[in-house]
Amino acid sequence: MLSQLDELRFEGVSKRFDAVDAVRRVTFYIRAGEIVALLGENGAGKSTLVKIAAGLIAPDEGLIFIKGRPYRRLTPSVANQLGIGLVQQELAVCPDLTVAENMFLGTATPTRGGFLRYSEMEHRTQEILDNLAAKVSARQFMRTLTLAQTQLVEFAKQWLRRPHILILDEATSALSSDQAEMVYRYTRKLAEEGSIILLITHRMDELRYADRVVVLRDGELVGELSEQPLDTDKAIALMLGRELKTVFPPRRERHSSPEKPPLLEVSQLRLGGRQPIAFQVHEGEVLGIGGLSGHGQHELMRWLFGLENFSGQIKIDGQFVTLRSPVEAMRARIAYVPEERKTEALLIELSGKINMILPGMLDRFSRLGILRSNKIINEAIQNGIDRFHVKWSGPHTIIRQLSGGNQQKVAVARWWLRDPRIYLLEDPTRGIDVGSKREIYTLLQELTQSGAAVLLTSSDTLELIHLCDRVLVLYERDVIAEYAGDQLTEERLIRAFVTGRAS
Amino acid sequence: MNINIRQLWEERAGVFVPLITIWIVVAVLILLYYGVDTTLFTEPQLGNTALALTPYVFVAFAQAIVMLTAGIDLSIGASISLITCLMATHHSGTAVVLSVFAGIAIGLWNGTFVVFLRMPAIVVTLANSFVISGVALLVLPTPGGQVGNAILNAGSSVFLFLPISLWSWIVILLAWAYFKRTRTGLAIYALGNNPEAARSAGINVSAVRLTAWAISGFFTALGGIALAIETSTGDPTVGVPFTLSSIAGAVVGGVSFFGGRGTLRGALAGGIIIGALTNVLFFLGISQFVQYIVEGFVLIGALALGQIKVGRRDRV
A17: which strand partners? Predict the structure, then answer.
């Protein structure tokens, strides 16, 4: 048996965010020379573990053993000294430096008499990139590269540094399968030289490059698979199989009126995938937009709210409309509650009152640019507060002081005051307690009963199943499947999420 | 190995207007100048013109370097005033050493607040500009004094057919070209571009930033010395317009306000344009007030050009 000195070991690591356990008492190890993949749904705790290993966040409990030494927490500079290399999906590059400059930035830059040796930097960069078949010149400016080329350069950077521990967090998400295979071939070489490799990928077929697969579910380690070829069914079974922790409201029948045109109709939308996207949403319907994070759900929502520019057509009530800005979307009675409620939606240092009137300021709460009387405004706010059961000590409460659940209720209620017909809700229950979740589920149902349509994304697959009438599955910015009724099962959804194929 | 032409053409500047366009403007300005005064390329006219442009070129350099780190320096004008006062009240050798020392010290002083206390550069340098103006008035309460003869002679001397002021531009451009190829030089661009990426690559971001402020202060000192030589006296308020000129020169020269993009070659062109503009307006007898208006519009115009190029991204 190898010495423990050569391991990366997580020992009882836990981390909570707000009221939610992101990871709970996770224990596992990776030996030198081994490639271990983490598998799990959105929100299963993969990225939290990666961030702990890279020193970006500190765990609440537990120890991380590196080279036999226990660490209560790592910092980026300690991680750097220990030779921990991280390739993330969101890349950190300097766009106005050349590829070679980016490759050699900071560490190990070859110099002579204090001057950088550009010929050597460019030569070595070119050699590595050519080996990776990257079709990139070392002299190109970073900003001229495609996303795939940038990912290859980020990997090449690590190859140059030969890290002791290499973490690949969705590092191949933009690559073709040939390019990804090349990356994994070099990853294997690093492992053979004694590196420790931790791998996260959304592509099921890439798990074959790992020696072992560790499965996480709801922040806990639930199993491990080491036989090759990997048993995909078994892996999916491990990812699922949790008890129902939240009570969803009973499903109700939607009375559809087929003679009416769909409330919202999208066609010819080119989000960046292979196929144009088309779908319809009817009054009173909840349409789920499913998929692992980063497959275009966010972009789709933002496009519908006029925040992103993709080519595509939108009809509301059978009439073509253009939604080029949030104001135009709001005038079309669309509401958008983004995923990052604290940074993109609410002004958390300001009062509940200000937050409640902001979206309505456009029309409902102003006349000729002047705010309407306090009486009208306060009455409306009180209405929203009662309707959404927001618990606060009054309209002057600072949003920061509210619990996550109450913040989320404010984020939806303030739109309700404008009486929207289409709600775009991104992960509306993320990071809030079970009680608030239940209330939000009920409210959502009431909104649709009064004729509004909801587009919903969620990191919780069960939510998609229990709240939505239909679910579209996005994979690499294509709609690859649509499920409704009996077809809408957790197993089908997750299989589509990770394989990119309908079943 | 597919570098396309466009890429080569864009270069690292080219933020607002491609560098080539700026040099065309410089060439046109020089031709116009020549049209007004055909003795432009003969001494002493060449030396006088170059010397008159030098303060504008150096303040553009000073501003460009701070801007590369995504900062801004509003105390350049006050520093220029102080340095002319130091130059006019000390003997030649002492005056130069003292001025260079003061310039670097001011750079480090500004930089300390910005780098270590993370205060916004715009406020720090604005406040310090008043401190520096006050010191300048203490050194020399009213315009006057006399810059040493040795310095005046050196400043207007000719070396290898070119006036010494032109040589100073060339030397600094060459030195910068080499500096860019050192770790610190590359790090200045890297941290201006993406401080997180720079930090995660193991760059000591604070030290590099402070170095940039010091270099900037050094260039401000050279600008002040050049102005003192040109006017041969000191004046505690003469530098006031140079803050705007330094920003205009850097921006016209394609240096980005957001850091990490721009070259000293560009700042040289920008400095020449702004300097020439000011001098031409002066010789045409147009009042200082109109000069301010013109220069302000040039700065706004250069920024607007850049924005139009970036496109309509943040619509409400």
Answer: A20
